[in-house]
Amino acid sequence: MSKITIRDILKKKGKEKIAMLTCYDYSFARILDDTGIDVVLVGDSLANVVLGLKETRTISFSEMFNHTRAVAQAAENSLVVADMPYVSYQLHPKNAVRYAKKFIKAGADAVKVEWFYGKGNNDCAYVVKDLVAAKIPVMGHIGLTPQTAHLLGGFKVQGKDMQSALNLVAQAKMLQKLGVFSIILECVPYQVARLITAKLKIPTIGIGAGKFCDGQVLVLYDVLGLYKKIHPKFVKMYVDLYRQTQNALHRYVFDVKRSRFPGAKESFSISPDEWAKVRRKMR
Ligand code: KIV
Known about the structure:
The protein is α/β, with parallel strands linked by helices and about 280 residues long. It has two domains: about 5-240, Phosphoenolpyruvate-binding domains (TIM Barrel, Alpha-Beta Barrel); about 245-280, no CATH class. It is built from twelve helices and eight strands. Strand 6 (about 180-185), helix 9 (about 190-200) and strand 7 form a beta-alpha-beta unit. Helix 2 crosses helix 4 (about 60-75) and helix 8 (about 160-180) runs parallel beside helix 9. The longest helix has 17 residues, at about 160-180. The protein binds 3-methyl-2-oxobutanoic acid (KIV). The site of 3-methyl-2-oxobutanoic acid has 10 residues, from strand 6.
């Protein structure tokens, strides 16, 4: 297999569905990279599922940077997308290019930005224009955008009435015009996602946006059943790793408490001759 490129992702539109998952560390990235996954996203959901923070908005750039570097070390085949944290572009849009370049240096192939409105022209379009001009591949993200969910009435499906559905179509078209190579549609009615997908030349990747998108993304820890604090309707859990991990660790604790671990197999020994010398010295 050779490394998937932005061009490969663009070529898949209408031909082959794009499979994408989030990933936050080297070990999982190794597993994912062997599965034929097209894109791994170092999502800022890292804030919730790994760091235990309440809001993705509070994650720092250095936290996202370290995890991006770890994932990039393992991703030999899949395209690595680094999620720009709130502090790196929404807080001060002028800093976006500087931070995005650091992600690319850390091994990311592209960055992702969530749609946001800003004061004057300091909005999402402004940031995307700057990033594209700096030759940094950009993935857009519209619909439910967790970094600004507080401005959207919380974690709710977006585009459920005519005006908000039309707004989403307009945002998608604008992002395409500005040069993003794909767009994530999060928590959008499937009819609206289907319309946007049909209107765009670039691929759409859905999360809670139905089956008509060009690809799908989910949070890795949801798919593996590792994060059970919330269970969104759109998640499909493929394995219950929380329960399996808990069972395994109970057995470990049990073995340690009863001196069943370590056994001879897991222990080192000194040769009888050397041991005899030690004993003599100790007399
Ligand atoms: O941070 C994240 O996990 C995301 C999603 C699209 C899954 O942005």
